[in-house]
Amino acid sequence: MTPAQIPVQTLVPQGEHPPAWKWYDYFTFNIDHKVIGIQYLVLAFLSYLVGGVMALGMRAELYTPDSDFLAPAVYNALLTNHGTIMIFFWVVPAAIGGFGNFLIPLMIGARDMAFPKLNAIAFWLNPPAAILLMTSLFFGGSQSGWTAYPPLSLITASHAQSLWILSIILVGTSSILGSLNFVITIWKMRVPSMKLDEVPLFCWAMLATSILALFSTPVLAIGLTLLFFDINFGTSFFRPEAGGDVVMYQHLFWFYSHPAVYLMILPIFGIMSEVIPVHARRPIFGYKAIAYSSLAICVVGLFVWVHHMFSSGTPPWMRLFFTVSTLLVAVPTGVKIFGWVATLWGGKIRFTTAMLFAIGMLSMFVVGGLSGVTLGAPAFDLHVHDTYYIVGHFHYVLFGGSVFGLYAGIYHWFPKITGRMLNEPLGRLHFAMTFVGTHLTFLPMHELGMKGMPRRVAMYDPQFEFLNHLCTFGAILLGLSVLPLLINAIWSWSRGPKAGDNPWRALSLEWTTSSPPLVENWPVLPVVTVGPYDYGTKESS
Amino acid sequence: MQEIPASFWTLLAGIVVTAISFWVGQNHGLFPEQASNQAPLVDGFFNFMFTIAVAFFLVVQGAIVVFIIRYRRRPGDDADGSSVRENLPLEILWTAIPAIIVIGLGVYSVDVYRDMGGLPSSGMMMAHHHSRGSALAAPLEVQTSPALTATTYGLGGAPMAEENHTPDLTVNVTGLQFAWIFNYANQQVTAGELHVPRGQDVLLKMTANDVIHSFWVPQFRIKQDVFPGQFTELRFIATKTGEFPVVCAELCGSYHGGMRTRVIVQEPADFERWLTESQVAQASGQTVAQATPSTLLTSYAQDLGITQETLAQLPH
Ligand SMILES: [Cu+2]
What we know:
The complex is a heterodimer of chains A (541) and B (316). Chain A is mainly alpha-helical. Chain A has a single domain (31-528), classed as Cytochrome c oxidase-like, subunit I domain (Cytochrome C Oxidase, Chain A, Up-down Bundle), CATH 1.20.210.10. Chain A is 65% helix and 0% strand. Chain A is built from 15 helices and no strands. In chain A, α1 (33-61) runs antiparallel to α15, α9 runs antiparallel to α10 (316-344) and α13 (388-418) runs antiparallel to α14. Chain A is globular. Among the domains of chain B are: 8-69 and 93-115, no CATH class; 166-290, Immunoglobulin-like. Chain B is built from 9 helices and 11 strands. Chain B has helices at residues 6-27, 38-70, 88-115, 134-137, 139-142, 268-283, 288-291, 301-304, 308-313, and strands at residues 154-155, 169-176, 179-184, 189-191, 194-197, 201-208, 213-217, 222-226, 232-237, 242-248, 260-266. In chain B, the strands form 2 sheets. A 6-stranded mixed β-sheet of chain B has the order 1-9-6-2-3-4. In chain B, a hairpin with a 4-residue loop joins β7 (213-217) and β8 (222-226). In chain B, α1 (6-27) runs antiparallel to α2 and α2 packs antiparallel against α3 (88-115). The interface between A and B is large, with 98 and 94 residues. Bound molecules: copper (II) ion (CU). Copper (II) ion binds at residues 175, 178, 213, 248, 250, 252, 256, 259 of chain B.
């Protein structure tokens, strides 16, 4: 595996960079993809903590049926901003901006992204967006849900709603710029010796994600811009009393926001495909099937948005067309799940914390996927739409799926990112608390919804009190579960044992350089002599 | 001792998974009682999906558990595992089986949805008439205007009904922050609770005053969003007498969670008696608020902004 001597290609002339970045470089407009990746990850994690505290506030309110802990308007502001933060400031930027930026050039043997400055600009749109969102809280906070359906969004807390829209448009712009960069980088910047079927699956997943973001994000921006005009400039695109069409907003919103669900899960699928083979010591099962299924999800995922609107103003033909497309998404998703399960078969599984979270994600995601299939057809969806069944379902996908996947990624790549190992016993504690807490919080929600509890309520029928107690206990456990991770990460970053270049004995290219990687990733660009998943074969030993 | 062949264990596991799935699919107890003609259809459809889901769940989780126990790394073993990368027949199998299942589900769901009245064969509900423009300036007036007859999205055409069968009872429903108002136009009765006769074909013509709401009766298993300036409808036959919650299921403001009332299903004779009594009471000038004291939101009444004046504006 010694890289052959090939001419050194540098994007930035030698000698212009310091040998390693200092701590303050991480607070500047730095164009190194690794710095940008870390900036995304840290900002996203801080946002996650804020969004988590909001969730705890809601669960405290829901401990009793009456509205007695928070003012109802505050509750609605919390539910709106919890959703907004977790989607736009945690999962999307952590998965795409964080891991995407840090890993993609390293995985394909590039020295940086195709457009490093654009990359830095994309990141630096995020802090002002976060500031706008935090500012909106001082104006009462946006209270119309992360969906911001008019007319409610037109008549409630207008200043906060306007700031919320500007914030989302900023992160949306960031996402478009980032996606453009990813597509071109993955397509054009692979090290010449890397064949197409040797591209790590994380990169394929990021390619699908970026294409999806490029198609869908502009539509959200249009919808929100029109909403902004309605609120501030007296237009009436969505004002029913002046002939506006509120259902049109829902179409514009969900045309982006259903794909947004895939933006939050496709990169995680990519992380899964990297973590499982390394710790199971097995080649990924069905490389091509997993790569193509990402693209299939990306294409079909653009045509399922109306399933969020089965109970809205939608005609029967539309309800049926989108039933079929929605159910079809289950097929490529199933292919991935079966592929990962089959990767466990015949392995020599090492139960590192990264692997525990990957297996946990697999197990949780099966639940969220199956409950998702039940929602595909209006015959049942009409009953549980906008109820706690939905809340349970999408938290299994986005918490049990996306957040578990992010955790797996953090434990897997922390040694590469920081050069230090995380503490394993603390990691196992973190996993155990998160696993139990997730089921306790979100499993009872399915029954709540089916029995008759709608979502987004600060007060509910007393018959639902017991199950809500379980959910709140689970949420407290989830809140506490972050502590072992925080302590572990902060302590290990400075004092953990040195990781070395390749602590997991992994085969993809990011492990061929030092930990943390050099400023331009490798002294000499690596040559691919072994595929990223060639475990158990002669070449890898 | 002879070894038991693997095929036996596979067969046994298959039987156990099937048995558990069927049992759980029928006995999960997750639904509230069934009180409309649509409810058994929805429950039957869900139970079918749930049976398949439980089977998938057991197979996949079972495989995960078996594999992580069987293929765990033993201490001191630093070698790699099997190098098998693919198995085309297996991959075709696990693509084809879910594909067949979801296509089957799709077909079955259309069938159920039609039985629920989602696909009326006649022109009913197909007239995508958005009542917009001038009529919208005064949504309250619309209730009594000819626009009322223009039908639109929703779940209509109850299955027992003949083609173009007119409903036995039509109720105009108005959602407003944060209450439901039910108006029996032909009988000149307005109420804060929905009364319907058991076994009769009821049509709800729904609109909203301010923002989007959503009309949901969990025991009926039906839900439809309610829009300002547009009509949506729900059609059902209540099959059980009793009181069931009416819940707003679309975020509509601060007290969205308090936007609940009841649907009271009565024997037809009792329903007629209630209707007549209400007619007399309301003709003698009682307001809706007096006729229907809402206990749920009294503690919030001041914040709610629903005043006697608001209610008095509503059509009687
Ligand atoms: Cu409402």
